[in-house]
Design brief:
about 120 residues, 4-stranded antiparallel sheet
Length: about 120
């Protein structure tokens, strides 16, 4: 059973930076898209960034130019570098590994990111 878990995050000041990581507990075999979602209090969970197997990336408009998603396939890990953070970036961040097959879509438990002075 594949399990994935986030790490990093925490508290940052407006304009600051944080990096979150998400690693799988075993080698991922097969084409896998990796993504970051976030959910602020009282709001739905929204896609932040996604990176496909071939390295193609896509971002929600509010983070373009500030966030960067990357992956290390050898380590089964996806990263989200967050720069120029804003208070509205405060949320629980979740990672997702999607292998495109039934029962092969995995979620982490989430990690808190708080941007506040």
């Amino acid at each position: 059973q594949v399990q994935i878990a986030e790490s990093g995050g925490g508290l940052a000041q407006p304009g600051g930076s944080l990096r979150v990581s998400c690693a799988a507990n075993r080698r991922i075999v097969g084409s896998t898209s990796m993504a970051w979602y976030r959910q602020a209090p009282g709001k739905q969970r929204d896609l932040v960034a996604i990176i496909t197997e071939d390295g193609t990336t896509n971002y929600t408009d509010s983070v373009k130019g500030r966030f960067a998603i990357s992956r290390d396939n050898a380590k089964n890990t996806v990263y989200l570098q967050m720069n120029s953070l804003k208070p509205e970036d405060t949320a629980v961040y979740y990672c997702n590994f999607d292998m495109g097959r039934p029962n092969h879509n995995y979620w982490g438990r989430g990690i808190q990111v708080t941007v506040s002075s």
